[in-house]
Automatic annotation (TrEMBL):
Transmembrane segments: 20-37, 49-66, 602-625, 637-655
Swiss-Prot/TrEMBL keywords: Cell wall biogenesis/degradation, Glycosyltransferase, Membrane, Transferase, Transmembrane, Transmembrane helix
Topology of the protein relative to the lipid bilayer: Multi-pass membrane protein
Keyword Oxidoreductase appears in the UniProt entry: no
UniProt cross-references to PANTHER family, sorted A to Z: X-BOX TRANSCRIPTION FACTOR-RELATED
Protein's cellular compartments: Endomembrane system
Organism of derivation: Stylosanthes scabra
Top-rank lineage group of the source organism: Eukaryota
Secretion signal span: none
Matches recorded under Pfam families: Cellulose_synt
Name of the protein in question: Cellulose synthase-like protein G1
């Protein structure tokens, strides 16, 4: 355990054991590869099948290798907020909320998020909240005005008086609100009915609504563009040295998150190198069963913690605190040369460039600038044409390299030498809305993975650009994400070749009595145990472990679409388009999800490769079994028999879902 002034870092306790396991597993993989290669020509009639299965296993081995980088040095962190300087000495903080479409992102939810941001436990004169509305929608503007008034007149005084923890109104009044004992007190009951008791109006943070001016001739760059516009607008107005970015559906569930993050930014030992503090993205609408793994357990419990022990977690777009200078001025040791050539980096606004000099401590903030002048300049810097011929989106601000602006921005920060930190407190600090059916989940997955493919083949690929700039194991974590859609190729091969061979009676694995069989068995068991331990140690259950395997295979097969989409985008066949995740929840879909039943509605296309694989599996299983009973070459075929049975048992709930869908439509 390492203790810093304001926070501590604890390395996973069974680290030596898990590293030993990695080594062991790796050696067994080498045996497997040896076995496959030395026998390619032995089965002279079936060489092609043998090659296919070898390719699949090689892909899986490479992915396994990169995936281990997350297990190299996982850490967890805790903070000591009580040691922070007092409120008067805290730095300014600007909160950015992004929204786009009131249909997919209901305005009420956006209001809740904004209110929870306003009610952050942070000195209100140091806090400013910015809402970017890319839809330019009057309803959102109206909603936000109402939200501010409500917050000022009722909500803030109320939260302050009773030290409420759930500061998102909807969460507070719902059964998941945790201010329980409070709710029972009598005085409180009366007040809850009539929050107007309270006379004194507290100081409230500044709230700014921004909707960018766009022109059809100029790309607006989606969320990345919105965030960069907010960076400039907020620079003119409050110019807080730290930022918080949240998506409109992700409300602040713990008002102390800002102070928790400050424990990294203000710690003498870490402050100079930390570009951002990431909190896990957690969700308020998960069912206990979470059959689609919408919580992304592997990402937020295994991968991010693993990266955190190297040089920091990736940036995941929502629930992250950022150091403004890190986004603007290159590497941690950068001199102020960006400012020498400020116009070509940051654009022509001299007022904005002055705000940058203030941030760098080169000059003091100007006082008494007329409000109208600021607002006028804000309109200039908010428009998309402001970025023309500047370094916005490349060297300055959020990156436009791929549509996954967060991931790529975090990655480039790491390449420039910045670190990041991951904080996973017991009480979730941010809660958002996860997709509740397969279609939405798949759309999101394809969006992410296809963009990551593009990063993999770009000039900034972790395999070339990253590897020469970052620590090696840290680079591997990024390598893994950019190639993870290759699972689809491996699983499709593994879902056809052994099956067809089982049907025809061609053995692809060693005899069960052959010592080489142990190699395959060991790899299987070792992988399963590693996964099981990870799920259990993250407070998961055995059922979750089992469900995760199913959804992992399903998602892996479907990532074929990401691969295709990525290739299309790469070749320029696809229009650049941001597919916005749906946050408006359909009641019927929700019911199915809560019951833990697969719902494939609207996802037929995504499911098609999987359905084909399942049919192949079923046909070959029964056909092959018939053959096996006649020929009785059980020893030869045991490996394949096991594989096919495993797949059938695992995919049973999916079959149920498909049958349910068919019977409904039929
Ligand atoms: O032109 C656009 C498109 C999107 N958004 C906002 O971007 C956010 C994220 O969009 P969403 O469709 O919800 O993305 P997800 O698939 O849920 O998000 C993940 O992936 C995104 C792309 O990297 C990250 O930005 C998100 O933070 C991360 O949660 C939302 O608040 C949108 O309102 C804009 O402001 N302008
Ligand atoms: Mn989202």
């Amino acid at each position: 355990m390492a203790t810093f002034t304001l926070h501590t870092e604890t390395v996973q306790s069974w680290l030596p054991l898990s590293r030993f396991h990695m080594l062991f597993h790796w050696v067994v993989i080498l045996f497997l590869v040896y076995y496959r290669f030395t026998r390619i020509f032995e089965y002279n009639n079936n060489t092609i099948q043998w090659i296919f299965i070898t390719v699949a296993e090689l892909i899986l081995s490479v992915l396994w290798f990169f995936n281990q980088s997350y297990r190299w040095r996982p850490v967890s962190r805790s903070v000591m907020t009580e040691k922070l300087p007092d409120d008067a000495n805290l730095p300014g903080l600007d909160i950015f909320v992004c929204t786009l479409d009131p249909e997919k992102e209901p305005t009420v939810a956006v209001m809740d998020t904004v209110i929870s941001a306003i009610a952050m436990d942070y000195p209100s004169n140091k806090l400013a909240v910015y809402l970017s509305d890319d839809g330019g929608c009057p309803v959102t503007l109206y909603g936000i005005k109402e939200a501010c008034e409500f917050a000022k007149a009722y909500w803030l005084p109320f939260c302050n008086k009773y030290a409420i923890k759930s500061r998102c109104p909807k969460a507070f009044f719902s059964p998941i609100g945790e201010d329980d004992c409070l709710l029972r007190s009598h005085e409180f009951m009366i007040e809850q009915e009539d929050v107007k008791i309270i006379n004194e109006q507290p100081e409230t943070p500044l709230v700014v609504y921004v909707s960018r001016e766009r022109r059809p001739s100029l790309p607006h760059k989606f969320k990345g563009g919105a965030l960069n516009a907010l960076l400039r607008v907020s620079g003119l107005i409050s110019n807080g040295p730290y930022l918080l970015v949240v998506d409109c559906d992700m409300y602040c569930n713990d008002p102390s998150s800002a102070k928790q993050a400050m424990c990294f930014f203000l710690d003498k030992e870490t402050s100079k190198s930390i570009a951002f503090v990431q909190f896990p993205q957690m969700f308020h609408n998960l069912s206990n069963k979470d059959i689609y793994d919408n919580q992304s357990r592997a990402a937020f419990k295994t991968m991010w913690q693993g990266m955190d022990g190297l040089r920091g977690p990736g940036l995941s777009g929502s629930g992250n605190y950022l150091y403004r200078s890190a986004l603007l001025f290159g590497s941690p040791n950068q001199k102020d040369d960006y400012l020498l050539d400020a116009e070509s980096y940051f654009g022509k606004s001299s007022m904005y460039i002055e705000s940058l000099k203030v941030i760098r401590g080169q000059q003091n903030p100007k006082k008494n600038v007329p409000r109208d002048a600021i607002l006028q300049e804000a309109q200039v810097v908010a428009s998309c044409c402001y970025e023309r011929n500047t370094k916005w989106g490349t060297e300055v601000g959020f990156s436009y390299l791929i549509l996954l602006e967060s991931t790529v921005t975090g990655y480039l920060l790491h390449c420039r030498g910045w670190k990041s930190a991951y904080l996973y407190p017991k009480r979730p600090c941010f809660l958002g809305c996860a997709p509740t059916d397969l279609k939405d989940g798949m759309l999101q997955l394809v969006k992410w993975l296809s963009e990551l493919c593009l990063l993999g083949v770009s000039k900034y690929s972790p395999f070339t650009y990253g590897i020469s700039r970052m620590s090696i194991i840290h680079t591997f974590t990024y390598c893994f994400t950019t190639i993870s859609s290759m699972y689809s190729v491996a699983f499709i091969l593994y879902g056809i070749v052994p099956q067809v061979c089982f049907f025809k009676g061609i053995p692809l694995f060693p005899k069960v009595t052959d010592p080489w069989f142990a190699v395959f068995a060991t790899i299987y068991v070792s992988t399963q145990i590693q996964h099981l331990i990870e799920v259990l140690s993250g407070d998961g259950s055995v059922a979750m472990w089992w469900d995760e395997q199913r959804i992992w295979i399903l998602k892996s097969v479907c990532s074929l679409f990401a691969l295709i989409e990525g290739i299309k985008k790469w070749l320029g066949l696809n229009k650049v388009k941001f597919s916005l995740s749906n946050k408006a929840i359909d009641k019927e879909k929700l019911k199915k999800y809560e019951q833990g039943k697969f719902d494939f509605q609207g996802a037929a296309l995504f499911m098609s490769p999987l359905v084909v694989l399942l049919i192949v599996n079923i046909v070959c299983f029964f056909g092959g079994l018939w053959r096996l009973l006649n020929v009785k070459d059980f020893e030869d075929m045991f490996g394949q028999l096991f594989l096919l049975s495993y797949i059938l048992v695992l995919s049973y709930p999916i079959l149920e879902g498909i049958v349910a869908m068919k019977s409904k439509s039929g």
